[in-house]
Amino acid sequence: MRKVEEIEQDIEKLSKNELKSFRQWFVEYDAEAWDAQFRADVETGNLDDYADEAIKGYREGKVSEL
Hints:
This protein is mainly alpha-helical. The chain has one domain. It has helices at 2-12, 16-44, 48-59.
């Protein structure tokens, strides 16, 4: 975990503007990584059981509006 600790220390040294830019970059980076993982899970069928369960619950009237 030394690398993570070094990154944390570097982040702590950023100016307010640099931290703002980093934060914006990281939010976009993290969202893209999450989207890529979600797409991969969909394509490989890793979410099929969850989808089937949700559809079954819907058909049985066991769902409610959010």
